[in-house]
Amino acid sequence: MKNVDDLIASAAELADRGLSKGEIADELNVSRETASWLVERSGAATEPEPRAEPDGPDDIHVDWNAIGSGGKRLTYIGRALADLLMETNGEADVTVGIEKAGVPLATSVSRELETTLGAYSPAKHQWDEGDLEDLGGGFSRNFSPVEGRKCFIVDDTVTSGTTLRETIDAIRSEGGEPLACVVIVDKQGVEEIDGVPVHSLINVVRVGEQ
């Protein structure tokens, strides 16, 4: 995807498949606000003379399909993420991947660090409209539990930090201890969330903002 029109078309396709706006945000690696804007724009695109609209939300789209579509490349990235975690965070018992994109990354990290593998589905996957705080996420029973265990958290991008914070809170609520988070791309320059360090391979910095 190279431009906004491509993103609008992708958002429309995902919406037609029945994905919630939260899932669309996850699939396109954009914020929930951006996902809403893209879906609304896709509907307006069929109007003969759409009214002038303000610029879209201030966001950055991250397309890491070149990594995700290749098993070897994904493994290499997982090794790099594991290396970041090993530097200063001690040893974990469980590597928790945030669904969907974080799970394959966490699988590679888990193998590299010789931990068990956990999976967390965030509340945003259920979000369409209304208050996200009224929804809840959960850990998959098909993967390792986090109770009483030290955990690393793996995701693909940081957009606002909300999903990482939710996962940290969920691990603590289950009686686990989140040691650190790691992502491929950080769009906010987050160094820690609720006392838990956040590491990234790539930091995006906007230059010249007012």
Automatic annotation (TrEMBL):
Query: Where does the chain cross the membrane?
Result: none
Q: Where is this region: Disordered?
A: 39-60
Task: Tell me which HAMAP family the record gives.
Answer: GfcR (MF_01214)
Q: Which domain of life is it from?
A: Archaea
Pfam families linked:
Pribosyltran
Record remark on domains: Contains an N-terminal DNA-binding winged helix-turn-helix domain and a C-terminal regulatory domain (or effector binding domain) resembling phosphoribosyltransferase (PRT) domain.
Q: Which family does it belong to?
A: Belongs to the purine/pyrimidine phosphoribosyltransferase family. GfcR subfamily.
Note the SUPFAM superfamilies from the entry: PRTase-like (SSF53271)
The Phosphoribosyltransferase domain covers 64-188
Q: Which GO terms describe its molecular function?
A: DNA binding
Q: Name one GO biological process term.
A: regulation of gene expression
PANTHER family documented for this protein: OROTATE PHOSPHORIBOSYLTRANSFERASE, PYRE-LIKE PROTEIN
Report the CDD domains cross-referenced here. Answer: PRTases_typeI
Output compositional bias ranges, type Basic and acidic residues: 48-60
The primary gene name is gfcR
Task: Specify the protein name.
Answer: Transcriptional regulator GfcR
Keywords, in A-Z order:
DNA-binding, Transcription, Transcription regulation
